[in-house]
Amino acid sequence: MSKIISKSLNKESLSKKISLRTGLPKSLSLKFVDSLFKAITSILIKNGNFKYKNFGVLKINYKEKRIGRNPKTLKQYIISARKTVTFKSSDKLKKKMNSN
What we know:
Layout: H1 11-22, H2 26-47, E1 49-52, E2 56-63, E3 66-69, E4 76-79, E5 82-89, H3 91-98
Antiparallel strand pairs: 1-2, 2-5, 3-4
Helix pairs in contact: 1-2
């Protein structure tokens, strides 16, 4: 059984990887990463989803307001309606992740 190593990928490390693979200066790759996520965010807001072929789909879900409960005190609270973003990976990505 292989050990899964969990390491967060932040904006700095992503731009560094792009810089190393493409030969672009780090400052330019950092601008690229910022622009990419701004574009994805605006597409999500406008369309409600963002699909990247062979990778997956980011989708906005709408949650209704509901009653929540503090498990320690059992006090009830109203949780307001809100939007959340979910990711569903494509079949090709799932196959690639699970191939050894």
